[in-house]
Each structure stands twice: as structure tokens, then as C-alpha cells.
Amino acid sequence: MLKNIDPALNADVLHALRSMGHGDTLVVTDTNFPSDAIARQTRLGKLLSIDNVSAARAIRAILSVLPLDTPLQPAAGRMEVMGAPEEVPLVQREVQAEIDRVEGEGTPMYGIERFAFYEAAKKAYCVITTGETRFYGCFLFTKGVIPPQAG
């Protein structure tokens, strides 16, 4: 255990999040996503996991250490429901609440069509799978920066 580090964040996940640079993307998925196959095509080249927790709980842990990109560009995406792209399932509303808790309400998620999401995920830095069993618990985040401290 480490002080001030969410216990859901294991060493592999922490290493990947720290290794990412500004503008790199991170994919967080549910249990139905083809996570291993997609992860093998990412920059990291292997699947990471935050086991036995919901997508929202995993994202709460991730956002405790990962800055999202500036409001100048979309920094948080969600997989759209097939045939109903404007629908926002409960799992996605829970994740939006976690984003709002950390970033304020100025960072709404944008929708990504399912197959476009798969293609974007292949270009990501890494994929983290969760224990989320609900459909459409798949998200894409763009890492931002931490400004220097004044002084």
C-alpha cells in the first residue's frame, strides 16, 4: 500500500499512467470489449486490468492521478449505443459523475460510434479492462498536463 494512492491502482496501471505523455489516450473497458486483442495493438502492447470493480470505480481511481486534457478539446469519450447514439446508459452517467467530481461540469463526454471506438482504441497508449459487466462501459480519455507550481 502507498499513501494517497487509490488502492484500486495496481503497479502496472500506475506505471502506464505515469509513462503516458500529454495527448496520449487511455481506454477503459467493460468485460465484453475485446480488450486483449485491442490492447496488443496499442503502444503498450499488453492488457492492463483493474479487477472486480465497476467502470465508474476504476475511473475514479484513474482520475485521482491522471489529468485530463484541457477544455479546448474533447478529453473524455464514450462508446455510443448502437442504433441510439444519443442514449446515455446508467454506466456512462456514473462515469460522467466521476468526471464532473474531478473536473467540474465543463467536461462532457463525447460519443464515439462502436466500430470507430475500436479503431481509436487500437491507437491508444493502453487499454485497462475493469470488472464492469454492463454494456457500453467503454471509455476513451486523453491525458492532459499538470502545470508547474507557482513560486
From TrEMBL:
It catalyses: beta-D-ribopyranose = beta-D-ribofuranose; alpha-L-fucose = beta-L-fucose. This is L-fucose mutarotase. The keyword Transport does not apply. Pfam families: RbsD_FucU (PF05025). Coiled coil: none annotated. GO terms for molecular function: D-ribose pyranase activity; fucose binding; L-fucose mutarotase activity. Keywords: Isomerase. SUPFAM superfamilies: RbsD-like (SSF102546). It comes from Phyllobacterium leguminum. It comes from the Bacteria. The keyword Methyltransferase does not apply. InterPro entries: RbsD-like_sf, RbsD/FucU_mutarotase, RbsD_FucU. GO terms for biological process: fucose metabolic process.
